[in-house]
Specification:
By secondary structure, the protein is an alpha/beta fold. The chain has a single domain (17-276), classed as Aldolase class I (TIM Barrel). 34% of the residues lie in helices and 19% in strands. It has helices at 32-49, 75-89, 100-107, 123-131, 150-159, 184-189, 220-230, 259-276; strands spanning 8-10, 13-15, 21-25, 53-56, 93-96, 112-115, 136-139, 164-168, 171-172, 178-179, 195-198, 204-205, 214-215, 234-240, 254-255. The longest helix has 18 residues, at 32-49. The N and C termini lie close together (7 Å).
Length: 277
Amino acid sequence: MHSAIAPVNVADIPIGGEQLVLIAGPCVIESEDLCVQVAQAVQSICGRLEIPYIFKASFDKANRTSLHSFRGPGLDEGLRILAEVKRQTGLPLTTDIHEPWQAHRAAEVVDLLQVPAFLCRQTDLLVAAGRTGKPANVKKGQFMAPWDMRHVVEKLREAGAAGVLLTERGVSFGYNTLVVDFTSLPQMRALGVPVVFDATHSVQLPGGAGARSGGRREFIPHLVRAAAAVGIDALFMEVHPDPEKGLSDPATMFPLGELESVLKQVLAIRAAVRNAQ
């Protein structure tokens, strides 16, 4: 499907090999019960489809539109809940960090550190993530060109990161609008790193719902299929049993009940591309 690169190992899951990897979970940690429920449900789906799975949820959403928006349980309680998800499921974990001091604490629990798009140029944050010795997944900023992400890769590698993933999540196109340039995926992969497509944040309308971000959930399957055809190493999706009741990004989280169908389409597209080569 695309040129070979050295895979990045997240726990016992290689990202960048032949298999597609799924990174998924609720946008924010709403409760322990919800996280365990989602993790077990997605784990079951991925087991049937033979897709390696990494659970994701945020302990804090530090870039919410409104001061009064729900941000999450915070670092201590969030890491406790994530550790419980791992205890009950055995799944590898990822979560995002926003400040350098959080990197070491988070790395004690999770297997992959995520750097949010707005913070992808923050040298102190990248260096702190790299110094943990864990792999890092960096969302490409909505304001960044794909070729400029080489500096992000260099910062993390020089700091000692065990590996680097780069994620496409849309680029700013006027006010409250994102578009996806799918050429960014092969361009970032040419930097020698596996690439991830963030299907849910790519349909976001930042700040487009007044005091919170809006989104166009109905376009998620279309973008996922396109990304699969272009070539990705991992797919990132925020999923929820009832997205409209979600406490963060309700307009863009994908319904848990529809996930398996979309993943089957992704696998079929990857197989078709591979067989045509």
